[in-house]
Amino acid sequence: MEITVTVNGRTRTRDVEPRLLLVHLLRDELRLTGTHWGCDTSNCGACAVWLDGVPVKSCTVLAVMADGHEIRTVEGLEGPHGLDQIQISFVQCHGLQCGFCTPGMLMTARWLLDRVPDPTDEQIREAISGQTCRCTGYENIVRAIRHAAAAERDAAERGAR
Ligand code: FES
Ligand code: FES
């Protein structure tokens, strides 16, 4: 089947098998390997991307279901002025170790902060509850998301002055 998806603002058309998963379209067909494939059970969340602005596990979505829709992957986080604040905060707060879970964490955290600029720890933990980190532990990840939220609030206040 021929499908057309918009990924990180770029329109891509591919002829795909109906059974192809979105995670494999992204990684194997479009070579966007920032999205990770970490399990066969829809548990790990390393494959999280945005579909029409909402985080989804891309291993649970068929590529054909994304036909005509917008996808944002971790490669689309960086903007014209450099890394997104959430990426900067993960680095500054050591929110990663091996980095395998990080793409999913970043996409979910970005989604949360776009909606809740000053989240509680509970809201952060709930937002990332679909992601599994097997090595860092969650303390620094939560700290990184809090750090990004504070930095963005500071920047917004400075801009408002
Ligand atoms: S690859 Fe593990 S939830 Fe998608
Ligand atoms: S940083 Fe290694 S799994 Fe999360």
UniProtKB/TrEMBL annotation:
Pathway(s) this gene product operates in, as recorded in its UniProt entry: Alkaloid degradation; nicotine degradation
Gene3D superfamilies: 3.10.20.30, [2Fe-2S]-binding domain (1.10.150.120)
Keyword DNA repair set for record: no
Annotated PROSITE patterns: 2FE2S_FER_2
UniProt cross-references to Pfam families, sorted A to Z: Fer2, Fer2_2
Keywords from the UniProt entry: 2Fe-2S, Iron, Iron-sulfur, Metal-binding, Oxidoreductase
A GO molecular function held by the record: oxidoreductase activity
Superkingdom of origin: Bacteria
InterPro entries referenced in this protein's UniProt entry, alphabetically: 2Fe-2S-bd, 2Fe-2S-bd_dom_sf, 2Fe-2S_ferredoxin-like_sf, 2Fe-2S_ferredoxin-type, Beta-grasp_dom_sf, Diverse_Oxidoreductases
Domain 2Fe-2S ferredoxin-type: 1-77
Name of the protein: Carbon-monoxide dehydrogenase small subunit
